Hints:
Layout: E1 25-33, H1 57-81, E2 86-89, H2 91-96, H3 98-106, E3 110-113, H4 127-145, E4 151-152, H5 163-170, E5 174-175, E6 185-189, E7 192-196, H6 205-210, H7 215-232, E8 238-244, H8 246-249, H9 252-266, E9 271-273, H10 276-286
Parallel strand pairs: 1-2, 1-8, 1-9, 2-3, 3-4, 4-5, 5-7
Antiparallel strand pairs: 6-7
Amino acid sequence: MKAERMPYSALPSRPPLRWPNGARVAVWVVPNVEHYEYLPDPIRGRDPWPRMPHPDILGYGQRDYGNRVGFWRMTEVTDALGIPVTLSLNLANWEHYPDIMEASVVRGWDVMCHGIYNTQYHWGLPEDEERAIIAECVETYRRLTGGTLSGWFSPAATFTPNTPDLLAEAGIGYYCDWYHDDQPTWMNTRAGRLLTIPYQMDINDAMVLRHALEAEDFARMIVDHFDTLWEEGAEHGRVVCIALHPYIMGHPHRIRHLERALRHIIEHEGVWLATGREIADWYRGQHPAPVEDGL
């Protein structure tokens, strides 16, 4: 019988997870630094710009604000608080906005690939096409930085049943399309085990705004989420992910709410401010992949 993609595991029955220096929680802050095409081509799955006819100036302009202004305002906050950042990056963003790339590289920020464009969805892609896109991302990042991609979160949270297999095949280190746990876990693929680390759709400004909540509500959610996992982490380490978008929380009326929530976190002891790569590397060292079952 073939192994399941993600075997069930009850968190309390797992071996204790300990973070560096006895930290209760590993906290990673993940701004989604994206690029939305003015005129998407091709359009797959659904139209990213619901206002017709194209171009959708309102929708495009709202996203463009993040790269022109919101990114820089958010960067001031993370710099001031000494918080390391993992970019969920559409690689086209660095191609279109070299100033953003320079600011990211100078700060030594980690990168989790978020595909190429956030208007190019992966739903329904044939396996060969998806493999080619992942290979293009790996090569683009190598061309731009000389480095290797450490993680993957599919563009606009779109993926296929083949995505984990193709990422493992390409040597991507960790994966974030599944929102299933408060700890890293191992996933079965055709090419071996792939590590997943927790990414958030609940503590995610785009999801909160979609439900007509505002920045003050989102900040309170961050604090409550952190406080619960910090308490639980005394016995069993947890991961706190804060998913952001510069075109949302980078606005003047929202940024101070974000700053207050992040300050609440850094004022606690037992907090490891980490990047996705650091979390993945630490977990692999402490909890190596089990013997392969295969798919």
